[in-house]
């Protein structure tokens, strides 16, 4: 466990301006939001393109520390992203890494969870219960074989814990050659969390006509993983215990979290 509650430093690009009371800069909160998300969105500007818009890609990633694999979520971690070896992002990261003075390729990575739909008396007071996080950093390619294998296992087990050792591993030469791992050294980040119920104006709350006609409350939201469906060539008679336990415990945990988020 970290000795103190580490916080990401505030900069103009990561400081939450609206609803500042929902902001959270702690590493533990931000890292937890990232490591419980099945999908991340990576945004960047291609310096070689004349397209005026930044790109945004959905990718799979996981936070961890190769030098300290047992590091807590509240400690300094790197973000590892799974990518194809000749993708545009990887080519840009490779190009940036060729400069000896470069920190890497600048990227912004974000993710979010919705825990509830908040239905108030008026549309303007509607909201979500949510947990969102964004990190900013410099991306480089992982070239060390041991670190690459560490990251590949980290990402795989981030999808389903224990999956790596329960598959055909290690990857063969072709798989290693076609897979790239991007490491993002995080410079800063921020989180934003909303929980609770409806927050309506006093005028609406005091109107019997409004409160008597409009339903108000929270619809809790959580992801449910269904029953595993075997592949046509599957010869394993039963769903493995590690997979079934992860599915059931995950469903239960996300439901509890969504219902807990409704409390003020």
TrEMBL record:
<protein>
    <submittedName>
        <fullName>Putative FMN binding protein</fullName>
    </submittedName>
</protein>
<dbReference type="Pfam" id="PF12900">
    <property type="entry name" value="Pyridox_ox_2"/>
</dbReference>
<dbReference type="InterPro" id="IPR012349">
    <property type="entry name" value="Split_barrel_FMN-bd"/>
</dbReference>
<dbReference type="InterPro" id="IPR024747">
    <property type="entry name" value="Pyridox_Oxase-rel"/>
</dbReference>
């Amino acid at each position: 466990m970290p000795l103190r509650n580490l916080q990401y430093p505030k900069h103009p690009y990561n400081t939450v301006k609206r609803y500042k009371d929902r902001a959270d800069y702690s590493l533990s909160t931000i890292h937890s939001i990232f490591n419980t998300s099945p999908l991340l969105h990576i945004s960047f500007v291609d310096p070689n393109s004349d397209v005026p818009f930044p790109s945004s890609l959905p990718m799979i990633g996981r936070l961890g520390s190769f030098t300290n694999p047992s590091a807590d979520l509240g400690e300094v971690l790197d973000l590892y992203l799974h990518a194809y070896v000749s993708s545009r992002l990887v080519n840009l990261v490779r190009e940036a890494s060729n400069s000896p003075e470069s920190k890497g390729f600048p990227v912004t990575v974000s993710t979010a969870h919705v825990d509830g739909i908040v239905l108030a008396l008026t549309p303007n007071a509607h909201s979500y219960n949510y947990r969102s996080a964004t990190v900013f950093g410099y991306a480089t390619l992982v070239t060390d074989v041991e670190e690459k294998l560490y990251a590949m296992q980290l990402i795989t087990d981030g999808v389903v814990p224990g999956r790596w050792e329960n598959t055909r591993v290690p990857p063969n030469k072709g798989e290693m050659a076609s897979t790239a791992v991007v490491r993002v050294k995080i410079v800063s980040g921020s989180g934003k969390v909303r929980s609770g119920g409806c927050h309506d104006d006093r005028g609406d709350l005091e109107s019997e006509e409004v409160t008597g006609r409009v339903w108000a409350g929270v619809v809790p939201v959580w992801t449910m993983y269904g029953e595993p469906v075997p592949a046509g060539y599957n010869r394993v008679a039963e769903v493995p215990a590690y997979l079934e336990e992860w599915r059931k415990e995950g469903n239960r945990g996300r439901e509890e979290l969504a219902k807990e988020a409704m409390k003020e």
